[in-house]
């Protein structure tokens, strides 16, 4: 793969990981962090 394709692939993977991490965060109800 070329450098541009590798950068686009890694950017996509990082974006997916961040999205999953944000969706997995649960808001604590009445608890201190």
UniProtKB/TrEMBL annotation:
It catalyses: K(+)(in) = K(+)(out). It is a multi-pass membrane protein. It is found in: Membrane. The keyword Ion transport applies. Its main location: membrane. It holds the Pfam family TMEM175. It comes from the Bacteria. Keywords: Ion channel, Ion transport, Membrane, Potassium, Potassium channel, Potassium transport, Transmembrane, Transmembrane helix, Transport. InterPro entries: TMEM175-like. Belongs to the TMEM175 family. This is DUF1211 domain-containing protein. It comes from Candidatus Competibacter phosphatis.
